[in-house]
Design goal:
- With 93 residues, the protein is of the alpha+beta class.
- Strands 1-2-3 form a 3-stranded antiparallel beta sheet.
- Helix 1 crosses helix 2.
- The longest helix is centred in the N-terminal third of the chain and has 13 residues.
- The chain has a single domain, classed as first zn-finger domain of poly(adp-ribose) polymerase-1 (2-Layer Sandwich), CATH 3.30.1740.
- 28% of the residues lie in helices and 20% in strands.
């Protein structure tokens, strides 16, 4: 999928996304799968190409009266993000 990005780079990207609050640490409220939307994946920083599969994650809004937060991730990026969010100590993530 990403010939120039290894598993450690994805882990660092997932951890950075959580630490910078670009991605929540909480589990998503809903998830859908489908073809890539062209949106940028917050874990690897690359677009989810229409030729690839992606997961769309929906999270609760940060404040009332806001739309739910949505993120588009490659399958491998989701797996790494999910592993990091559930296994990294709270001080690390």
């Amino acid at each position: 999928m990403f010939p120039n990005i290894d598993g450690q780079a994805l882990r660092r990207g997932a951890l950075a996304a959580i630490q910078s609050r670009a991605m929540p640490r909480d589990p998503p409220l809903q998830m859908w799968g489908g073809r890539g939307s062209g949106e940028t994946c917050p874990v690897c920083g690359q677009a989810c190409d229409p030729a690839e599969a992606e997961l769309e994650l929906e999270f609760a809004p940060l404040e009332n009266n806001q739309a739910p937060r949505e993120f588009h991730l490659h399958l491998a990026c989701f797996e790494v993000w999910d592993l990091v969010r559930t296994s990294a100590p709270a001080t690390e993530a």
